[in-house]
Amino acid sequence: MPRRPLRVTGAPEDPLRAALGALRTELGVPDGFPPEVLAEAERTARAPRTPSYDATDIPFFTIDPPDSTDLDQAMHLSRQGTGYRVRYAIADVAAFVTPGGPLDAETHRRVMTLYFPDERVPLHPPALGEAAASLLPDGPRPAVLWTIDLDADARTLAVDVRRALVRSRARLDYAWVQRQIDEGRAEEPVALLKTIGLLRERLELERGGISLNVPEQEIVPRDGGYGLEYRAPLPADGWNAQISLLTGMAAADLMLAHGTGILRTLPAAPDGAVGRLRRTAHALRIDWPHHVSYADLVRSLDPHRPHHAAFLLECTTLLRGAGYTVFRDGALPPLTTHSAVAAAYTHCTAPLRRLADRYTSELCLAAVSGDAPPDWVLAALDGLPAEMAAGARRANAVERECVNVVEAAVLAPRIGETFDACVIDIDDRRPTTGTVQLADPAVIGRVDGDHLPLGEHLRVRLTEADPTRATVRFTPA
């Protein structure tokens, strides 16, 4: 599911980048890898455990942002009778990581890759995550190969998972793929991304699921300060995401049938969270009639429009109740579904960036082979939800504080100015403190004042915007 993408450009001595560097220190973000971890990564990069099944004849390709080097997935799409065949290769991180070794311990300490607007802090050393384990088109790689056969409506017919040696032939980016498809010049394996993606989106609508087209925010220098610009996702982004969702749903079904696994679960959003989102829509002047469901509203939004883009970013708050649920020996948990996916679902397609995915791959391989999962997987399974929750808290803190720093930087030159806003929340314990959403620029800040009108528009004056303290404060004008 989406995170809130932020990107900043500029020289390292730029004040905003300096504030982000200080934030990394404040949050205790890991700075580099211990020598013994780097040594193990270099060693295993030269001699991974190689699978016996050779699938290097399949012309896989990857689709990622142009500057990405940690490539978790490669795909090949084809027609299969009246339906389709999806072959999805996932980086086989377990081929490089020895259970109980220094590298394994370090990944359990880091849990997931952390994304800052100016850089990322990776889960694995670059020798693995950006080279030997990444599905780059420079040689064969060990992978966990999913083969998913679909009918003419893109419903799943059959699933196979096995270890395989694969070779990516092309490293594509979303803009190139979109142009090739739009201009009718894409070869069939790429052109089918649209065909299958649209069919899967139709099935998502049918089952009541929802995907957020979360725009990327870019912070750009402007008039001696900073401005926020949005990059709306391309349709190809969504079609590509449907392949990942398809695989995550297939993985969940395999584990549920086998009786042991780990799911990504999310209960339905509480009324209070939806109510707060309605106030945000009101603040951004987005019409949300009471008879229109949240899912229908989101599908009607255009991420190219700044107010809609800002609202889509706030919609990610409804995903914050997601967690990991372990089950064993056929004893299924009370909740097995993810409310946004509207189906059983798990994380399995990003093992270079997320710890749990390495374990999910092993559980699915065991489910297909009929064997018991490896001992090292079972030994770690019960502790994974807590580890992933701790990692998610850190990632959420990074995201939250980065947004605060960026919004403070954008507003810093405008202290004393007044803005149109809406009160979207009030502190229950301190009714003179609340949260306002500005209409333009679309940022959120604290407001202090008597008789704050919850859900109503309010003219506010900016009194503080300090990137070094990540604070933005207003008072009623």
- Model regions low in confidence, pLDDT < 50 over at least 5 residues: none
What percent of the residues sit in helical stretches (DSSP H or I)? 25-40%
Query: Hey, roughly how much beta strand do the residues contain?
Result: 15-25%
Q: What distance separates the N and C termini?
A: 38 Å
By oligomeric state, this entry counts as single chain
Total strands: 18
SSE-based structural type: alpha+beta
| Major sheet size, sense and barrel closure | 5 strands, mixed, barrel
The 3D shape can be described as: globular
From the alpha carbons, calculate the radius of gyration and give it in angstroms.
23 Å
Average pLDDT score: 91
Written description of the protein model:
It is a single chain. The chain is an alpha+beta fold and 477 residues long. The strands form six sheets. The chain has a five-stranded mixed β-barrel. α1 runs antiparallel to α13 and α7 packs across α11. The longest helix is centred in the C-terminal third of the chain and has 28 residues. It is globular, with a radius of gyration of 23 Å. The mean pLDDT is 91.
Short overview:
With 477 residues, the chain is α+β, with helices and mostly antiparallel strands. The chain contains 13 helices and 18 strands.
List its salient traits.
477 residues; 36% helix; four-stranded antiparallel β-sheet; alpha+beta; 13 helices
